[in-house]
Amino acid sequence: MRVVFNIGSALAPVLGALLAFTALPVGASESAAVFSDTSRIASIGGSITEIIFALGEESHVVARDSTSSFPQAALKLPNVGYMRALSPEGVLSVNPSGILALHGSGSKEAVDVLKKSSVSFIEVPEHYSHEGILEKIRIVGKALGVDAKAEKLVAEMDAKLKSAEKQTASIKERKRILVVLSTQGGKILAAGSDTAGDGIIKLAGAVNAVEGFSGYKQMSDEAIVTARPDAILTMKNAGPPISEDELLANPSIASTRAGAARKVISMDGGYLLGFGPRTAEAIHDLAVLLYGNQVAD
């Protein structure tokens, strides 16, 4: 019997290349800056937009990128394109007073042009961790001149994240999870260290089944078997759909415990990998799908 779980809405657009980027190395973030004019902010990056709304500062946002699909109200804003393939002309066409962009926005050439324009550009670092989320909130709050609001939200998120992580603290046998980005051409593209996939499964009390590389890479059949996954995690709305039949028909996958049990978990990519205000809920949902009633209340 196949066990397939689906979570999330169809709000998130194609996230595709988002997963090909790894976290900004710790300590590599730029000093937090403040916009001199916050009247017309272009928000680039789904988690950045979510944080702005969570801070109650959405009235300052005049445009967003295509990954900014939550909350629903964000969809009413002009869309300046996909964050990994920005057009400087498109971003500047909304006449922003400032651009607040998540690390990894691009292309590099496009970002260089935006940074050289007369519009203030602030980049927000991305670390796939509990502290990384709090850092994002603080930097966004400082950029918008609402530090006090940001600290209040930080306290709320910190408590929620600690509670979500505590739910799996007593679990002795940790599940080994293979995070699969795509199966195109019969090749399994999986998440290594320093990725959003790696970060979220650790926060949910599980273990990344693959070791020895960072970022996302294609895995050999031997490497998949050696990984010994208990479950396979895939993303909805994150590029070309992954065929579960094709995935589970892969001989190397089929030979694993996950393949034998047909244990595939599919979650909305923006919700699961956003590392923003909804991450505590995503951690809880993933933990329940992995451990069931072992998850503490």
Automatic annotation (TrEMBL):
Pfam families: Peripla_BP_2 (PF01497)
Coiled coil ranges: 147-174
Top-rank taxon: Bacteria
Keyword Isomerase part of the UniProt annotation: no
Signal peptide region: 1-28
Fe/B12 periplasmic-binding domain location: 40-294
SUPFAM superfamilies: Helical backbone' metal receptor
Protein name as catalogued: Hemin ABC transporter substrate-binding protein
